[in-house]
Amino acid sequence: MVDAPTTAAGLDAWLAYIESRHPRSIDLGLERVREVATRMALGRPAAQVVTVAGTNGKGSTVAFVEAIARAGGWKVGAYTSPHLLRYNERVRIDGEEASDQSLVAAFAAVEASRGDTPLTYFEYGTLAALWLFGRSALDLAVLEVGLGGRLDAVNIVDADVAVVTTVDIDHTDWLGSDREAIGREKAGIARAWKPLVLGEVDPPSSVLRHAYAIGANAIRLGSDFFHEPVDAAHWRWREVGAELVLPHPRLDAPAQRANAATAIAALRALPRALPSHAWAEGVAGARLAGRLQRFEPDGVEVVVDVAHNAQAARGLAAWLLAQPGARTTRAVFAALADKDAAAMVDALAGSVAGWHLAGLDGVARGQDVEAFAARLSSTAAATASRDARVADALARALDAAAPGGRVLVFGSFHTAAAALEALHSAA
Fold first, then answer.
1. Phi-psi group of 169: left, alpha or beta (phi > 0 → left; psi -120 to 50 → alpha; rest → beta)
2. Which member of 74, 162, 412, 417 lies 3.0 to 4.6 Å from 190 by CB, making a disulfide possible if both were Cys?
3. What is the pTM of this model?
4. Helices 100-114 & 121-134, crossing angle to 10 degrees?
């Protein structure tokens, strides 16, 4: 048996330890994590809690909720996953990432209460975040679901407002093979007689049936709240009897206005009101790395996005079509082995002039580039270049791109992280 690190050990030692404590990286279920939470005497993490689930848009919606609430003077804790460059990104308190020392103390508190109960990496992290939040006198905790909803570790907390951003086909090994089954899992974060905010116009009927069955108040985009453009600089959020004219989000992509609108609906569903200035300030101030994040080395635009499923790839295609000017786009693509990579290529095939594939060997659910390329042999990426590493594929794409061209890097959080590290080290 491997002994737990001491509190004097660094964060990396603790992360390596907690990653080794469970034979599986994903083991859905609430019994184990709830048992340890009880031993830790964890209470509510904040005066108010918003929990966010969804196939895409979770991280952006959390960022909007956090930014708006903080603009209104609230002390906010945000728990998100996965991270891009540092584990600390997952836990933010009052706008600051948790320090190594505070995370180590939190992991040690989890370990002291765990006993023989096995916990996954995500479950350790969730309990650690809740422990830190509970000691921070928060006005609001915003919790992002890791996978699904009903059986995800964050669902041990009763949300005052639950949010389901979108529902599409992803993680089928755990959630089901169609939108109805996946929707049932995501709707499991809703609580009886509490608001459930739905961020898409046509959610699966399973989500609405579940809300009805437990008496949750479903608040739907396109039925109960709306968003629409006003001019080049502004858009309008409205519901019956109220409207807000707001600056466009700095987070790009057509879906980000829907994410901002969903975040506004979630905050307005809480019993405590925000000051009127918070809405515009928060929408304008929200930031999130790896979401259409742009760089321009040597006259080539590089766009890095965490898009990792077909729905997200369709969003990227819509964004590319909406861009002014005529830029030729090359794509650097690396995806995990359990993703429908062919559907992602198909979504972008009409917008990409050249493909560069990379491997994600050595990461959980990763694959080497040859196995990845074999899965794409009947797609537009069939003749793509192949590199073992994302950084090498990005360098090759930049060499092939003409000045004024564009390189789009996407496919997973690991892909985005590797690209960001390469771009930062070259700057």
1. beta
2. 162
3. 0.94
4. 110
